[in-house]
Each structure stands twice: as structure tokens, then as C-alpha cells.
Amino acid sequence: MRCQKCHQKVVIKISRANAKYCKACFIGYFEHQVRRAITKERMFSPEDRILVAVSGGKDSLALWQVLIQAGYQTAALHIDLGIERYSESSSEKVVQFAARHGQKVYTHRLKEAHQLGIVELSGELDRPPCSACGVIKRYQFNRFAMENGYTVVATGHNLDDEAARLLGNVLRWQNEYLLKQSPVLEKNEEGFVKKVKPLYRLSEYEVAAYSFLNGIDYVVEECPMSESSPMLVYKKALNLIEHQSPGTKQQFYLSFLDNQKKSPLPPSTMALHSCPACGQPTSSEVCGYCKIMSRLPGPAQKVGGPSLT
Ligand code: Q46
Ligand code: ZN
């Protein structure tokens, strides 16, 4: 089988686009999709200082690599969740990647900051680990970016992540969440820094292939907590449909984005203000992060910025 662009040997078939590529043309296609996302959605420019949220997995490291190669100014923030073997190998991959590319990575360690990893912390709170993890990560990325002059936070969410999230939001008709489901969330005066998802047009399979073909050394093991995450069920459901009808996943998510541009949902009526405990923006009395911290046992938890190395 020959590449549709240059007739070299095919290394990947992309059913949803009815395309087949050799290694060089696939890498070209992948990077073109990222560039297209950045320009089409006006994500950032070379003047921006980009904070990449890196977990050590394929998505965030592939994103970081594309941005470095394209010459953007980047640094990364990694959250060490304190999950024994998984967090150790994730942190190791992130640090090695940064060293190999001469880039700066900051790490926030949950166990150093709170004496608890995400599993123990969610047990204390009687809350699913992924829900506590989401609050902590969003808070730390935003706060770190604001306090250190980063103009954009970039995450490695791919098409599968976004389609699964959309399915979850649609199943419950969560309008407030649907409004935030965009590859770009602009900064606002209340203190949210701009957030972007440059891989939103690329599937998980394509990101894995790109990482493999580029020799990116990422942590292959998934976070052990993902087993209990509802996102996994939504992904499985969408994969089942995608298998029967290739292209459905991208149509589902990208058509939602198109419709949002043509006839947007009514804007949020939620008013933001500064959290009285930490100053970060929130629509509740105190922000989700401070609420979590106030419920942890022991001496009052520090809500300040991350302890970094
Ligand atoms: S890292 Fe955190 Fe995910 Fe692990 S605890 Fe859940 S949310 S599964 S992206
Ligand atoms: Zn707060």
C-alpha cells in the first residue's frame, strides 16, 4: 500500500479521513492540523509565553514537541499526583523530555504540598479522585500562569477527549459546561488566563502514532484512577460507534463547534468574583480549590501557589 501523497510505503491509515500516509507525510499532516488549529482559532502568537500542562503522557509531550519545533516560547508545569509508581515514572518522563529539549519544567507535588497524594486526598474528601484532581489541576495551572507571566495555558486534550466530554455534557444537558467546551477559552478580567487545546482536531490514535514515530518517550501506563472515570465509558461508547461509522466522532465534536459559532447557546449568567481566601476567580462563595483545602484534616492547608522545583 502506498502513501496517497508521495507513494512511499504506508505506515498509517486514518479511516475517519479516508487517508493513508507514509511516516514523513503523516508527520506533516499532524503538524499541519496543529498549526491550522492554532491559526484558525487564534490560540497564540510567537510573542506569547505558553505554559504547557504536561502529565508525561503522549498527548501533552507530543503537543510540547510540536510547539518547541515551531519555535514558540514554552515552559511546562507538571502536577505530581503522588500515585506511587505511576507518578514517579510520569515525572521522570517529563523531566527527561525537558532536559532533552533544553526546556524548563516546574513540578507541583501534591504530597509535598498537602502530605497526601490524590488517592488519600479524595478519600479524606469522600469525593471521586478525578473530580478533586480536576479542581486542583485547573487551579494550579491558572494560578501559576497568572503569577509568572504566562499568557496562555496549553493542554494536550485531543479529539477523543473532547468528544467524550461533549457526550457526557449532552447526556446531562449541562449548559454551563457546554458553554466552556471550546478549544479556546479567552482570558478574562476576573483572573482566568487564556486556555487552549491545539490537538483538538487530532484523534488519540493519531497522537499515539505521532509520538511513536517521533521517538517521544512517554508514560504508556494510564493513570490508575482513569478506570473509575466516567470519561472512559463515554470514550468506549464513542469508539464503538466510530468503529461502525468512521468519522462520527469528529463530526459530533467539530459540528458542535461550528453550530456554536453560527448560533451560540445563550451566554452564562454566572458572575465571577475573587475568592476571599486566595484571590483566584470563582462563581461560588469560595473557590473549589479552597473548599477542598478547608476540608482536609490537620493544620490549615496552605492555599498559596505551588511548591515548585
Ligand atoms: S490524572 Fe487525575 Fe486523570 Fe488520574 S486522577 Fe483522574 S483526572 S484519571 S486526566
Ligand atoms: Zn480560593
Characterization of the model:
This protein has 309 residues and is of the alpha/beta class. It has one domain: Rossmann fold (3-Layer(aba) Sandwich). The chain contains twelve helices and ten strands. The strands form three sheets. The protein has a six-stranded mixed β-sheet, with helices on both faces. A two-stranded antiparallel ribbon has the order 1-2. It has a two-stranded antiparallel sheet with strand order 9-10. Strand 3 (49-53), helix 2 and strand 4 (73-80) form a beta-alpha-beta unit. Helix 2 packs across helix 9. The termini are far apart. The relative contact order is 0.15. The mean pLDDT is 94. The structure holds Fe4 H S5 (Q46) and zinc ion (ZN). Fe4 H S5 binds at residues 118, 129-130, 133-134, 223, 225-226, 229. Fe4 H S5 (Q46) is lined by residues 118, 129-130, 133-134, 223, 225-226, 229.
Blueprint (SSEs and pairs):
Blueprint: E1 12-14, E2 19-21, H1 23-40, E3 49-53, H2 58-69, E4 73-80, H3 84-100, E5 105-109, H4 110-114, H5 118-125, H6 129-147, E6 152-154, H7 159-171, H8 175-179, E7 184-185, E8 194-196, H9 204-213, H10 230-244, H11 248-262, E9 273-274, E10 281-282, H12 288-294
Parallel strand pairs: 3-4, 3-6, 4-5, 6-8
Antiparallel strand pairs: 1-2, 7-8, 9-10
Helix pairs in contact: 1-9, 2-9, 5-6, 7-10, 7-11
